[in-house]
Design brief:
Length: 258
């Protein structure tokens, strides 16, 4: 069994002009963990995800996925290696149905390759059938079967969040980075998304790192929490350790002297 951390971030930095959004950030995530990334607005959480998941090139530092250096690789390359992420704002294709949104997320769709289609029509057909099957199973897992043929633009905010989670599942992701899965979601759905994350973690071997402001969700899901402030790690530990640390309170609310 591979005992290397699934993700290792070393001295990661990202600057925008004079703004150091992420500053010398180092941490690792082990297989099977659910790690929370919290911190006040502007702490650099989303930028960390962007630089780890290939959406932006880091200014400094390295990223390793299962021991392989992947710094600067594209989102698509990383997706195929098993690193998947969701966005603070859902990013579905509005004019495709829910089912189609999952199908296009799938690893490879040889049917789109005309040459493949011509050379190996049977193989392509079989693959497409598998993709449809997997998309349907994923919709069922998400409780979205009833809206399979609905255009994504007509789904509710919560349903879009679920679809977003579903798209990460289509790639057999090993590590999923979730950016505020609970944002704009009602408490019932929040509960459900939490259940799904736990199910995926315990029964399907997914590892998670999630950014979230809802501390109840963080406490319920996370084995370990990393607190970011001003692009750096302020503290790392259990919910209990974080709750009782005055540095964290200061980072969120400003210290008395400030
Ligand atoms: N594309 C960008 N251009 C310039 N500054 C940015 C950009 N993205 C983020 N920042 C800045 O980087 C800092 C961290 O932002 P962000 O990573 O979005 O924080 P968080 O997700 O923790 O709220 C903020 O000061 C923000 O204004
Ligand atoms: Mg953010």
């Amino acid at each position: 069994m591979n005992t290397k951390p699934i993700l290792e971030v070393q001295n990661l930095g990202k600057s925008y002009g004079g703004v150091r959004a992420v500053n010398d950030l180092s941490f690792s995530i082990n297989r099977g963990e659910i790690v929370g990334l919290i911190g006040p607005n502007g702490a650099g959480k989303t930028t960390s995800f962007n630089t780890i998941a290939g959406a932006e090139k880091p200014t400094t530092g390295e990223v390793f996925l299962e021991g392989v250096k992947v710094t600067g690789r594209s989102t698509e390359q990383l997706y195929h290696m098993g690193l998947s992420r969701t966005f603070q704002l859902s990013q579905e294709y509005p004019k495709m149905t829910a089912l189609e949104n999952l199908m296009v997320a799938c690893k490879s769709q040889p049917g789109e390759n005309i040459l493949m289609n011509w050379l190996y029509p049977k193989l392509v057909n079989k693959r497409e059938t598998e993709v449809v099957q997997k998309s349907k199973e994923t919709l069922e897992f998400l409780g979205l079967t009833h809206v399979a043929d609905e255009l994504a633009e007509n789904l509710s905010g919560g349903q879009k969040k679920l679809l977003e989670l579903g798209r990460t599942m289509m790639a057999d992701a090993k590590l999923i980075l979730l950016d505020e899965p609970g944002a704009g979601v009602n408490p019932t759905l929040m509960q459900k998304i939490g259940d799904m994350i736990i199910d995926l973690n315990q029964n399907r071997g997914y590892t998670f790192c999630l950014i979230e402001h809802d501390m109840q969700l963080i406490e319920r899901l996370c084995h370990r929490i990393i607190v970011l402030a001003e692009g750096q790690i302020l503290l790392e530990g259990s919910m209990e350790e974080i709750r009782n640390n005055t540095k964290v309170v200061d980072a969120y609310f400003g210290s008395a002297e400030a």
